[in-house]
Structures are given as structure tokens and as C-alpha cells.
Amino acid sequence: MSRILIIDDDRDFSRSLQIQLEMADHEVTIAHTAVDGLQAAQAMAPELILLDLKLRETDGLDVMRRLAANGVDAPVVMITGEQDMQANIQAVRQGVIDYLRKPFPLTAVLDIIAGLSRAEEPPNRAVEIIPLRRISENPREMVGADPAILELLKQIGLLSRSRVNVLIEGESGTGKEVVGRALHETTCPDAPFVAINCTAMVPTLLESELFGHVKGAFTGASETKAGKLAFADEGTLFLDEIGDLPLDLQPKLLRVIQEREFTPVGGTRAQPFQARILAVTHRNLEEMIAAGTFREDLYYRLAVTRLQVPPLRSRKGDIELLVIHLLWRICRDLHRNLRGVSRAAIRRLQAYDWPGNVRELENILTRATALTKGDILQEEDLNMEDRTGYLRPPRSEEEILPLADVEQRHVLAALQACQWNITHTAERLGISRPTLRKKIDDYGLSQHP
What we know:
single chain, 19 helices, 17 strands
């Protein structure tokens, strides 16, 4: 049984709802004005308040503020017979746990009450909570205790003693830019860090973006503009997705590296190039060299040394630490006050294979933080049931599939996620390309069924 307060000036509706709730063994009090509702709330300490959005003398949003100001912290469900998008949004912002549109069935209210009852579990069924804490003041901190991460940090420390060019490799979303910035900050923290995305730029504009241009160099060049090479000065030039650099620009970048100078588009005077280059890619450049889409001499100039950033699925022991670190930052950015995350939520995250790596983890946590109604991030807040990387255990014997069927589905899902790139899919699955091709043949898989 729950103590419920209805604050609604519609007397017939209020009485009808009261009768139905009392028949379901709940204790119900009705108030038809804001003043009466506030007095009733202070007197009865309700466990749930059903509050009408539009009262005659004021609105439900004002009543919520007055309830909070008087120390009433009962959960509120806003009810209304009108369509009002902005009021709906504001009600959610002020903390209502749900929003019901009249007319609604009694089961809608009963489901909310049942949900509140489940949230108040007895001590012997208390949810194990991992409290949030600040892991680092640096939002770009490389968080983790996995041996691969510790080795990566060691290599960054060694490379910070020189200014050799570095090729940073790893799957999308693993944090390659975090690695690049860490190397920059340990080498020349006061110098510029200039990043350019070789994929995002229009090929015809990429040369001007890199080298800059002089006035009149091309149509629309109304003034001289410095490029990224000049802005980098004695700092770091971070070339994101270098594998997407157009083939006709590759010899020009090679010359910059060899001669340590560049000439703006349309210019005649060379300028010195003093920055260190950190090139980043998720692609296999050696295969691109074999295919003739990436220059071998440029590759060796960029890959004086190489750093490999491990995928998240290979260091799942770091997930708990990463979740705490990311949630702390997300809560700060979204102005949320989460107290912690449940152990069940952590286990769910650790069971997933993370094709999108740390970036995907951050996106899931951001969405969950924005939408959760409580102050503890729970497993259901993650909304991960539809993600193919998580293999839900069968609920009954009838749901147990033959192992070959499970593997076939997983291999097909991996191929589709990687756009049928055999090399990339094999890397993600942790098998060789011949093994992957054999599985494709054995299962009769096709890109165009």
C-alpha cells in the first residue's frame, strides 16, 4: 500500500482515480488547489504525488517549486489533458518521474507505483553501488591498469625525449588522439597542438588547409591565409586518419618531411617546417601500400616509430575504472549529480565486445546519464539489449542455439559492421584472414544475398 496525493482541480477525474486506487489498496488524498495540496503534502508525507499541470490559480511547475521549497521530496507524476511540449520538457527538467496524458488507464499509475516499490529494495537486497570519484583532473587522461596501457605509457615516456615522427595505430574510438596529446604534453606542452582530419576535409581544399595560400592563388582566395603547417610552429602536427590523405597530396607531404620546409599554395617563397608529426590511422597502411593507394616512402617517414593503441575488448579489466572516470566528467558537463553506478551495470558493460571502443562507451554513458531518473546509474539505464556485441544468456532451454549458429550470426554481424572489409573484420574477431574466408565459405555468407 502506498500513500498517494492527487492535486487536481478536476473533481470528477480526481474522485474517479481515487476510487480506483483505493480499490487497489492504496491510501489516497485529494487536493483541488495548490495551497491545499501543499498543506496535505506536509501533513501526510506522500509516497507519490499525481499533480495536474494546469490548475486554476497556478500551474503544476509552480507547485513543484513550492513543494521543494517546503521540504516535500516525494516523487511527482505530472498529469494533463492538454498537449504542451514545452511544459512537458520543463516538468522533466524539474524532476518529474513520469508524464501522463489524460485519459490514461489505471495500469499506467500502478506500473509507476510498482517501479517505485522495486527501487526501494530492503537492505538484504540492496544494489551494490560503486561510488563515483575523480580519477584525474585531466579530461584526456589515459585511464587504465592493463599491461598494454602501462606499456603504452612507458613508450610515450621514452618518445618524449626526442621529436621523431610517430605513427599511432588502432581501431576507431580507442583514444588515439588521447595518446597523441599525451605525447605532445610530455614533449612540448607550451607549443601548439594542431590537428587536421584528413577524412573530413574536401580533397581540393586539403592542400590549402595544410600549406596555406597567398592572395589570389585560386578563385575565392581574397587574402593570404596561413595553413596548419605554419600554425604548428615548433609544436605538434596531428594528422588524423592519414590513410585517407589523397594520393596526389602524399608526395607533397613527403617533401615537407624530407626538406623540413613548405611553400603555400600560389606562393614562391618556402617557409621552414619545425613541428613533429603524429600520424594516426585505423587502416592497414602496409596493405594500402601493396594496393598502390599509399606511398611506401611516406609511410616510412611517418612511421619512424609506431604506437599501437589496444581495443577496449582486449582490456575489459579497465572498464570499471574508465566508467568512473568518464561518468565523473559527464556528470560535470551535464550538471547531473549521480552518486555512483551499480555493479550490475558494470558487469553488463564488461560483457559487451565494444566494436566502437572507448568512444562507444562514452556515448552510452552520456545517454544513460542524461536519461536516468535516479542518482544511481542502473543496468536498465544503459539500454543495451539491442547491441549485437552483447551476448545475452539464454533464458530457457528452448533459447539455446547450436554453437555453429551463434558463430555464423556473429561472423555475419562483424562483416556487416566492418562493411565486409576482410582484413579489418579478421582483426576485430582476432583470427587470420584465411580463417575468416574459410568461415565465410563454410557458412555460405554473402555480401549480396
